[in-house]
Amino acid sequence: MTHILSVEYARLGVVKNIEFRTTKIVNPEGAKSMNYKVYELKNILERFLIRLANLPSSTSAPRPDSVFAVIPEDHIIYRNLVRELKEKGIQKAIAVRNYVKKSVDGFLQNYKQHSTSGIGGADVAHRNARGAFVYKKFIKFLPTSRARILSATAKHHGVAERDVDQVITTMLIRYDCLLPRGQQWNIPFEWYKNMEDKYGIGIELFASPINNQIALVYDYYDIEDLSGIKYGSLFPDTDAVFGSIGNVITNLENVTGTNVIFEQVAACDVSVSDKNLIIANPPYVEELMDGLVDVIHEWMSRLKITIILNVPEWTDAKFYSKSLNSPYLVYDKTLMPGTYHYENSSGKSKKVIPAKFKTHLFVFSTIVTENPWNDDVLTGYV
User: Fold this and answer.
1) Cα 37 from Cα 89, distance rounded (Å)
2) Do 20 and 74 belong together in one domain?
3) For the segment 360-374, what is each residue's pLDDT rounded down to a tens digit?
4) What pTM, to 2 d.p., does this model score?
């Protein structure tokens, strides 16, 4: 799949138009009383785009694009879109779906035009005097530390100095195509650093170049060898040069065969590494979390590792009950609203986001230890 800037920029225009037009469908008069439903609409669109981007490509159903895919309106992804809209009391759910599908399909019908419209001259991405990454009308700021480690990691993976701004901007536009909101919040850096100092983190299973914390640990300690920056991310085609090991979700089915994710997880086993802790903070999309917990149990049955899983307190969900009753569970804790927080690292500066919902922290381990897991694991989180 190509990821030249012209494609990313064209797709972003479509996504922003979807957000704008579906907001008009839901709230045509701009009434303040509808603000809650518009808020929920945007959250639902984010989950829809995550589901769509995680749809695997196959020989029978190849996908040219990394985010969009042509699927029928009765596909489970569109059915989930309609279901979630109706559950939030949004009455024009079918109209929203129809507009979304028309927009996605229309972009893909013209995909060849987007992917062959070359770039050059003023269209090349650059970083302006204020430090923002710029391409045409796209402008994105990042925290100084994040921009610094992205640049260093790209160079470590062989990107030439002249191309660094280009690959960073391409990645930034790609993630903006997900209409990022709460699903892109990251776990607190202080908690992550505490886990690294105590246990040694091998991999973050769900992250992005923008929100992974392992890279910031390397930047914080000024570690020169960046080969240990490893995390799973949604878009390995744009993210590999920043440390991504691949997409965990699209590698769920072939759990232990020829599977790059399993190979990296197995490299965290106590027999070959002193970094045995794996962090999993997946998007709050139920079917993805169900599949993840199944795979975690498969890994635990084969390896000596520890996995910390952060998920919502959805007590009737499969992933929750299986985690709570797991033979590998060594610690768990419900975190109450207002007692813990997330961080949003996607803007010019990091923002602390107080949590307004219950979440649950599960620790699974097959490593025998004299120091049992306890509430110390929450240091820096709460």
Assistant:
1) 8
2) yes
3) 999 999 998 888 899
4) 0.91
